[in-house]
Amino acid sequence: MSNFDNHGERQSDDKFDWGYFAHLSIYDFAGQFLKGKAVLDIGCGTGYGVKRMLDSGASTVSALERDEDLVRKLSADIKDATFLSCDLENGILPFSNETFDVVFSSNVFEHIIGVDAILDECRRVLKKYGLLILAVPPVDGVGSLYINAQNMFHITNLCSSAWQAKLQRYFSDVTSYRHWTVDDRVVDGHILRDDAKLSDFIFSERRDSESTITAIFVAKNARDVVLGKSSAEENPEDWDSARVEAKARIATFVSIMDTKNQVEDYWRKEIMGMREYLEKQIKINPSKAAKDTLNRLNIYFS
Q1: Are residues 280 and 215 both part of a single domain?
Q2: Could you give the CA distance from residue 118 to residue 135 in angstroms, rounded to a whole number?
Q3: Domain coverage including residue 198
Q4: pLDDT (tens digit, 9 = 90+) per residue, 15-49?
Q5: Integer CA distances (angstroms), 5 to 27, 46, 50, in order
Q6: Quick one: which of 223, 209, 222, 128 has its CA closest to 176?
């Protein structure tokens, strides 16, 4: 499925490397909750995870993707699942109340500006006693915040405690899990990525200080009434997140656009898409960081 635009980070199922198995292992982790269940996959990408969900015994799988061409391709290739095109920035999931037993989303919410609207929609479409499985990049310090913000497609870069607090507004029971690897794949604190396989990856309930490949949350017991927003849903104030993110994004744009005569049309299209994202972000949250980044990007396009 590599003929379809990647939109930045879509994991392909035609390259069996460490990244592929790390992503696939999250679907394997979710498998323990899926047998006999009606499942929604928000941001299914190339569909390899949907196949895994069906193999895990899900009774039905519905999957959302933005790319309409990819949705048509997946619908033709995977007959046992339902694929729909959906722009999550519209803040609406195209399903009736209490449709699913499990809502799953892996490495998608960091790409969304309006995460609160989609979390509220997850709560709405879940059946009573249903659960949400959410996986996002671990942002647990200024350094990892900078690295994530360098990726122009990572819009919402929250630390793990902020995601936990946000989820607790919508669900009364939220558990954090560690996504890690077996001991013989770690040397001097570094994960060995060569010759990766699915069995390399393990999961356990996470302590606050533990490193993790992915921040994973299992949320259940949806609240009848959503709690009010709190400062706990933000990164620590002393991180100065707006400045760090603006600095990282500007560095990325400068790096790309300094060679703009050689930039492929593909990247031009993706950078234009990022400009549209920033314009939306400014309407929702008119931060100085977003405005400064957009201004710098406009200069390079002028």
Answers
A1: no
A2: 14
A3: 18-144+151-232
A4: 789 999 999 999 999 999 999 999 999 999 999 99
A5: 23, 11, 19
A6: 209
